[in-house]
Write a structure and sequence with these properties.
One of its GO terms (biological process) is methylation. GO terms for molecular function: 2-polyprenyl-6-hydroxyphenol methylase activity; 3-demethylubiquinol 3-O-methyltransferase activity. This is Class I SAM-dependent methyltransferase. Keywords: Methyltransferase, Transferase. Its EC number is 2.1.1.222, 2.1.1.64. About 40% of the residues are buried. It is globular and about 50 Å long. Helix 5 links the parallel strand 4 and strand 5. The two termini are about 15 Å apart. It has a seven-stranded mixed sheet with strand order 3-2-1-4-5-9-8, with helices on both faces. The protein is α/β, with parallel strands linked by helices. The C terminus is likely disordered. It has a single domain, classed as 3-Layer(aba) Sandwich (Rossmann fold).
């Protein structure tokens, strides 16, 4: 199954992505992504390539933190919006063929592209491209949607009572393919245990996984916690204490996986050897 450019443009052309992480319960995903990255990224100023960065929700705070940020995205509307942000350079780009030189950035973020690459070969290719683009010792971070997120979310929202929603959510448990009713395009949902293998096949061994939301995104009063700065701090601290517990990774809606390109003292394959890997 292939998620075509036409499907992506049709869906994201509705301009629903701009506010997704800026409001409601999805703010937990945003703040937890920010929390993990701030601990993992090299100190600013460093050059960050934000691949599939949408309208710049993460690029904006990265620039504010002092990073040099270039954003790539296949959706013209996203590029146009992101380019308006002070300090952000934005241009079109595909995660599977990054328009940047080898070893030219300090960190590559893939905080969305793997959602839309249903074929494993394409996901490994995107990760291999990230490894090629980052300097030795540099960081590659990729977000994935959890295999179990649809069942959890449809129960949370109450739509699990609808037969079509229920069948679709359970179908995703079988092979990860999520054909969201009414959403406009299919997506791929990862089993948390398959992510390190995809990183390793792209030349990025030793990947570390972080559950972003834990079980807290399923709580009915989560917005009240996020609206209150002190309660939000406690909530983020609570999830940080459990973020990498293997038995809890699958409860999160999203997992952030981080690895580093081997430095000059470590043997690594040439980038050309990785691009054709399945």
């Amino acid at each position: 199954m292939t998620v075509t450019r036409e499907l992506l443009l049709a869906y994201y052309g509705q301009d629903t992505e701009h506010g997704r992480l800026r409001e409601g319960h999805a703010r937990l995903e945003f703040w937890r992504t920010q929390d993990v990255l701030r601990r993992a990224l090299p100190p600013a100023p460093a050059r960050v390539l934000d691949v599939g960065g949408g309208t710049g929700v993460h690029a904006e705070w990265l620039v504010a933190d002092g990073y040099e940020v270039e954003l790539l995205d296949p959706v013209p509307l996203h590029v146009e919006r992101a380019a308006r942000l002070p300090g952000v350079t934005a241009r079109p780009g595909d995660a599977r063929e990054l328009p940047v030189p080898d070893a030219s950035v300090d960190a590559v973020l893939l905080l969305g592209p793997l959602y839309h690459l249903a074929e494993r070969a394409d996901r490994v290719r995107a990760l291999a491209e990230a490894r090629r683009a980052v300097r030795p010792g540099g960081l590659v971070a990729a977000a994935t949607i959890n295999r179990y997120a649809a069942v959890h979310d449809t129960v949370r929202t109450g739509s699990y009572t609808e037969e079509r929603q229920r069948e679709t959510a359970h179908a995703a448990l079988e092979d990860g393919i999520m054909l969201s009713p009414g959403r406009g395009f299919p997506a791929y949902f990862h089993d948390p245990d398959e992510i390190p293998g995809e990183f390793a096949d792209a030349g990025l061994a030793g990947a570390e996984r972080y559950g972003l939301e834990g079980a807290f995104w399923l709580y009915g009063d989560i917005d009240a916690w996020l609206d209150d700065p002190e309660r939000r701090r406690l909530l983020l601290d609570a999830q940080r204490s459990m973020e990498s517990v293997p038995s809890l990774l699958g409860v999160s809606g999203h997992v952030l996986t981080i690895a580093r390109r081997p430095d000059a003292s470590q043997a690594e394959p040439h980038p050309a050897d990785l691009r054709g890997r399945p």
